[in-house]
Structures are given as C-alpha cells and as structure tokens.
Write a structure and sequence with these properties.
single chain, six-stranded parallel sheet, about 30% helix, binds adenosine-5'-diphosphate, alpha/beta
C-alpha cells in the first residue's frame, strides 16, 4: 500500500499539497523533501502522511528526501498555529522557519594538523608552531599568527610533511555554556525573584512570568540566573532570549558570553547566511543551547526549549508589520505553551496587555522596585518650551544646554534622545510653499545631510537635494524644517566644539558590528555626547551616562493612535532610565510644550502605576485592548475606484457575529504609497471572540481583483 504525503511549501499557498511517497522512501512528518511544483523542484516539509485510498488520480511523486535535519514536531505545530492566528498561508511562517535551512552552507574550513612526523630542523619558531597546532585546529594563517611566526614557517612544515592541510566540515562549534561559573551575587529582591523563577522552572511545564523591574534593577542578572538554572536542570535544555533590536542583541550576547564563558547562537537579519545556517543546524541538533536573537528566532527548530525570555517585552519592534504579520511576544507565549516551556517577559514598562495578564493572575508577577546597589533612579525635570524656548533655528533649550555643560565639566556623558532619523523631517520651498514628498506617496521626504539626499522613510525612495524648487523653480528657496538627530548633532557641535559627539541611528549604525563598536565606545567613555534615536535609548548600560535630554518629548503623542500615550511613556521612561545607572546620580530633562499632559506628569513623578491605572480605565471603558481585541484589514490598489468598489463589497460580506464591530472602510492615514491607494477596516471584538476565525471567514467570502492586495493584521500596532 502506498502512502500520500502532504507537503507544505515555504510560499504563500493556501494549503499543503499531496504527493505520492515513492516506494522505500519511508518518510516521516517533519522531513524536508524536494517536491515538484510545475517544472521546478521545491523544498518543502512533510506535514502529514496517510494511506492512499485506491482509485484516486495518480499524484506526482516526491523527488527525494533531503539530507537535512527534519523540522521538529513542535516547530511544525507552532508554524501552523501561527498561520491560523495571523490568518495567513502556513507557507509564510514556514518560510521563516526554514530561513536558516535554506541558507548556503559555510565553506569547509582549511586547517593545519600535525601528521606525526617530526621536523628535521626544530628551530624555536617551528617549535612554537607545533605547540600552537596542538590546540584547537587553526587555519595556516591563524596558526602563524598564534605562534607569532611568518606564514613561511608554517608552509615549510607543510612542505616537509610535518603538518598537513585538511578540510574540516564547518560543523558548528558552539561553546557549551559553563554552568559552574558563578553569576553576580544577587541582592535580596533579585534573589527572591530568581528563587521564584527557579521554582517555576522546577515545576516544569508551561508557565509565564512577568519580571517587572525599574531600569537598572538587574533584570538581566536575574534572568541570566534563570537561564543557568534551566540549562543545569537538563543537559538537553535550550534557552531562547529574544530582544526587540539588533543593537540590543549585541549587548546581551556580551553579557551571556561573560556569564557562561562562551558565545551563544546569534540570530537576526544582520547575521550572514552561512552563519545562520550554522545556528539553525546546531539548534536542530541540540548543540546550540542558548540563542540570543530578534523576533524570527522564535521559529528556530528547537528540540529542547525550556525557557523563552522576552526582554523589553513592551517594545513595539516585536511586531513584524510586513510579509507575515505577527507579534513575537504574543507568539513567544504560544511557543512556550506548545513546548511546555517557561516564558519570562521582562520590562521596566510592561505593556498594558501583559500587565493585565499579571493583574488577573494568568502570569506570575515579580517586581524589582529599586535599582541595584547605590544607584538611584534619575531626577526627572520637565522643561516647558513655552517658557524656556531654544534660540531660533535651535532645538536645545537653555536649561538643557546648561545641564550638558555641567555634565561635560564633570567628565560625564549626555544622551540626547530624539526619535527622528536624518537632518530635518520636512523640506519646503519658502517661495511657493511646496512640501517635498516622494513620488506617488503621501509622506514627506526627510533631509539627510550625511548622504546629501532627501529620503522617503516609508518606501526607501531617495534623490539628491535639488538646487531649485521642483515646483516653482525658485533658486535656493528650499528650507529644512524641524530637527532630526543629525541637526541636533550639528547644534551640539556648535555649542560644545571640544566635546566628542556621535550619532546613533539606523543610518549611522547599519550592522551589528557597528552597533557593538559604538555601544562599547560609549561604555568606555570615549564619547561625551551621544545623539540617538530609539536604537540606543533602550536597554543599554552606560556607567558614565548621567544626563538624558529628551529633545521632543511630545513627538510620540502626536500620532494619536490607541497606544500613543502608552508608547510615549514607555519610550521616555526607557530613555530617561539610561541616566545614573551606576554610582553617579542621573538627571533627565524632558523638553515639552505640554507639561500638564498625563504622560509628562507621570514621568516626572515616576509614578508608572498611576499612569497605568488611568490608561487601563480608559481602555476598559472603550473596550479596547487589553479589554477587547482588534484586527485590521489593509487593502491597496493602483486604481482608486476599483479599490473603493472592492472595499464596499467586502463591507457587505462582513459576517455578523455577536461581540464584533466592523468600522470602515476608510482611507488609511497613509492613503497613497508607491502609487497605490490604501484603505482600511478596523474590527473590534470582545475578548472571548475567536477573532482569527472571524477574519478567516470574512476573508474567504471575498475575492479581491488581481491588482488589489489584501492584508490582515491581528492585534495591530500600526494604524497608518
Ligand atoms: P536591567 O536589566 O534591570 O536594566 P541590569 O541587569 O542591566 O538591569 O543591571 C544594571 C546594572 O547593575 C548592570 O551594570 C549590572 O551589571 C549591575 N547589577 C545588577 N545587579 C547586580 C548584582 N547583583 N551584582 C552586581 N552588579 C549588578
């Protein structure tokens, strides 16, 4: 009796395809196979096997089983769960799960090895080479370097047959974590939190805890303890530490390496494909026991996952907004459940969703309310820009400049925080009033002085800054409006020409290495003033940083969406929390036009709980998350009339369900991107509603025209 194999392909197809299992192939669920799709062979994963009933039409056979690690059953289940939740094709999360498996293999390493023959002339240089060759296998060049000799010496030994060059398959070498190394001695509240976490790990099974501790309270120290405990309990145990930004992975990798004496697996978009392949295979084989990564690390083929740490769990960057749309914090909890693992969410400013789960007892709630040691939380002052305005065409108010001067004089560091890349967010013509926008897109072009270009942050379009206004042709009429980090840097240089100043934004720091270099330079005190977007404002630990200046504290409030106040509070609490983390007291100055706003008042009073309580009340009243659920439909198309007609059809097709309200269609706030019109629906549902099922039913009732793209966003964070 032959069998039928259902194979899921890593592409946006609605379901798995059936193939015949060739005789003798003995496939298993999870196997990676090559299966024909049209004229091509595609990599896919077997998701089900069943006996073929006679009389069916013949199926194409699977070409072959790939000599690759199978996808573990739990990973496969997670992929399928994620697709259902996101109302998307299962091939989409599968593509993420196979990203490492599809990357090119690292080239085999060529290493020099002793043959056993003795050298004819044992000079001191040659002896040093042979001593170095006794250790870890090294390439000829590295061996020469390790022995402090010229490459000729190594070559001579090879020619003589004392050393031979062999190719070592690039089997991943992941250092086993050294669990005998002691961690920091924990203070009493840290020890209490660590003790509770250890108990939770010992209980085993799925559990979620919130580690809720003010900035600098030692959350990282505490969770590293939990990591050690989880790994020590079981030699096959694996741990995943998720971070919202690549820059933060670098800092945590450093701390993991220091704690466990070896490099963890590193996983994010900045890791080169062969290195990714290495991590993927080592995770699948259980050789890599600690992974530090960004959101997609959640899809790695873990075989013994015992603990997932989501650090800075409140961070909006955990939401993937393009392609397969998901929230990595929410899916981490799901993966934990599927793996029967513990999940630890850490933050100084937890999301309202997580706080609600903690309040209702679904999550354990561990609080660290003071900074470690003698470090104190910074003093927070509001600078009312109406009373202390900066000079014209400047952005730093007199009180902030004075504080910077004092900080510099004490040899301490300042962080100027402005969550805006580039030089100026808007360029306009003072002759005709034209605002420079990207072609076919309704967003402003941002001026970047480093590159001399005007850039659309939405589409990536860029052009050199023109000499004349493209609209009216006036010469030298284009003026830069408002500040970005580059402009604040310029102002800081004019004010403090002797200071060492750097900018940290995704334009100046493109990769993980660069981020690490800048973070180290800052930690070593080689920078006096760091002007940074959120890329540097969170999570880092800079001992000499004592002043944080928030250039535009009102910036995030202007968007006005559901989470504007929450997000602004979180971001500014994080940014100000960088100050005074060690023995020197810190200070934070928030420049604002709205010092009476609830967010500013709560920040100044350092009263998170009051802010959260007020915000929760509003959300509960409006039945918004975490008291209700949201989903969005975003449709776009080149033809406005066609899109409008489709959206009306979709509105008519919306299923009636108790506890669900559909709003729209409405023009999206970003109503034109790359020549495509955009429209949205917003759906609100009561907590008990299976919103994914509702959206799937709705989606199945409509067939968008070919030119219309339709995306569903469950639990949306962006409303643009
Ligand atoms: P958080 O993650 O809560 O912001 P960290 O874990 O980064 O805090 O700790 C802040 C600083 O205090 C770090 O430099 C850390 O090494 C130090 N620290 C925290 N707890 C301890 C401890 N128990 N012993 C020694 N240093 C500690």
């Amino acid at each position: 009796m032959s069998r039928i194999a259902s194979v899921l392909l890593p592409m946006p197809l609605p379901e798995a395809f059936d193939y015949a299992e060739p005789d003798g192939m003995a496939l298993a669920v999870g196997d990676q196979v090559a299966a024909p799709l049209g004229p091509r062979l595609m990599r896919g994963v077997v998701v089900a096997l069943r006996e073929a009933a006679g009389g069916n039409r013949p199926l194409k056979p699977i070409d072959r089983r790939l000599d690759e690690p199978p996808l573990p059953a739990n990973t496969l289940e997670f992929v399928q769960w994620a697709a259902r939740y996101a109302v998307d094709a299962p091939g989409q999360p599968l593509a993420i799960a196979l990203r490492g498996a599809r990357a090119p293999r690292p080239k085999p390493a060529r290493v020099a090895r002793r043959t056993g023959a003795e050298p004819g002339r044992p000079t001191p240089a040659r002896r040093r080479v042979l001593e170095a060759a006794a250790g870890r296998p090294l390439s000829p060049a590295d061996l020469a370097r390790a022995a402090g000799v010229s490459s000729g010496v190594v070559k001579g030994l090879v020619d003589e047959g004392v050393l031979e060059i062999v190719e070592l398959a690039a089997e991943a070498r992941f250092d086993q974590p050294d669990l005998t190394r002691p961690g920091s001695e924990l203070n009493p509240s840290q020890a209490a939190a660590a003790g509770l976490l250890n108990e939770m790990l010992d209980e085993g099974g799925f559990n979620v805890a919130l580690l809720d501790g003010v900035t600098g309270s030692g959350k990282t120290e505490v969770y590293l303890e939990a990591v050690a405990h989880a790994l020590a309990a079981d030699p096959a145990a694996q741990v995943l530490i998720l971070l919202p930004e690549i820059a933060l992975t670098q800092a945590v990798i450093g701390r993991v390496a220091a704690r466990f004496g070896g490099q963890p697996g590193e996983w994010h978009s900045g890791v080169a494909p062969p290195a990714r392949r290495r991590v993927w295979e080592a995770v699948a084989a259980g050789r890599c026991r600690i992974v530090v990564g960004a959101r997609s690390a959640l899809f790695l083929p873990f075989t013994g996952l015992r603990l997932i740490v989501v650090d800075e769990e409140h961070d909006g960057s955990f939401k993937q907004e393009e392609g397969f749309i998901y929230h990595a914090r929410d899916l981490a909890v799901v993966r934990g459940k599927i793996e029967s693992a513990a999940v630890l969410l850490a933050s100084a400013t937890p999301s309202l969703e997580t706080l609600r789960n903690a309040e209702t007892g679904r999550y354990r709630w561990l609080r660290l309310s003071a900074r470690h040691g003698t470090a104190q939380l910074p003093e927070i002052e509001l600078v009312d820009l109406r009373q202390s305005p900066p000079p014209p065409q400047s952005w730093l108010s007199p009180p902030l400049v004075e504080a910077m001067r004092e900080t510099l004089a004490r040899g301490e560091q300042t962080l100027l925080f402005l969550n805006r890349r580039g030089y100026a967010p808007l360029v306009l013509c003072k002759a005709c009033g034209e605002r420079m926008t990207a072609p076919d897109t309704d967003s402003w072009l941002v001026e970047h002085r480093y590159s001399g270009r005007l850039v659309c942050h939405l589409t990536g379009f860029s052009m050199p800054k023109p000499e004349r206004c493209p609209h009216c042709g006036a010469q030298e009429s284009l003026v830069s409006i408002g500040p970005g980090v580059e402009r604040v840097e310029e102002e800081a240089r004019q004010l403090f020409p002797e200071a060492r100043i750097a900018v940290f934004s995704s334009d100046t720091v493109f990769d993980a290495r660069e981020a690490r270099r800048l973070v180290e330079a800052m930690a070593e005190g080689e920078i006096d003033i760091l002007v940074a977007t959120q890329a540097a404002a969170k999570g880092h630990n800079f001992p000499r940083l004592t002043l944080v200046g928030v250039v535009d504290a009102d910036l995030g409030l202007r968007g006005g969406d559901l989470r504007a106040a929450e997000r602004t509070f979180q971001l500014l609490a994080q940014a100000t929390g960088r100050a005074g983390r060690h023995d020197r007291p810190g200070r934070a100055l928030l420049q604002t036009y709205a010092p009476e706003h609830a967010v500013m008042q709560a920040l100044q009073a350092q009263d998170r709980d009051a802010f959260v309580a007020a915000e929760m009340e509003e959300r509960e009243f409006a039945k918004l998350p975490p008291f209700g659920r949201l989903a969005a439909v975003i449709a776009s198309g080149p033809d406005g009339a066609q899109l409008e007609a489709f959206m009306r059809e979709m509105a008519r097709a919306a299923p009636n369900a108790a506890g669900v309200e559909v709003y729209g269609p409405a023009d999206a706030p970003l109503s034109l991107v790359r020549g495509r019109r955009r429209k949205r629906f917003l759906v609100r549902a009561d907590r008990g509603v299976d919103l994914s099922a509702y959206m799937a039913t709705w989606r199945a009732r409509v067939k968008p025209p070919n030119a219309v793209r339709l995306a569903i966003d469950i639990d949306p964070y962006s409303f643009l």
